[in-house]
Amino acid sequence: MALIRAKRGLVPDGGVGLVGMKFKGDKFHFLHAQDVAPVMDHCRESRKDPNKGWTKKRTMQRIASIPELVFYNHPEFIGDHGRLNLKELRKFLHSPEGEAYVTAAGSI
Hints:
Elements: E1 16-24, E2 27-35, H1 37-46, H2 68-73, H3 86-93
Antiparallel strand pairs: 1-2
């Protein structure tokens, strides 16, 4: 995972993560960077919700809010035919890096 240093540190501790670069000779250009600290803060606050992420009619539950940057850096999330690989996603959400993006308290 390519990372750039920010004032607040490195991803996933709350900094800016680099998604891609272009090289031209000895120069390089950053294509996209994302500050994931606000997403992590939102997820931390959402875990305190007494409804545990359920909608009002309890038909859906939000279990995580994963930034675009994380999907770029984890191609194993995309399975056959472009479908979401739930096994890999669950494994990620139980890892130290992924648990920062979990929005619902309890088991997932």
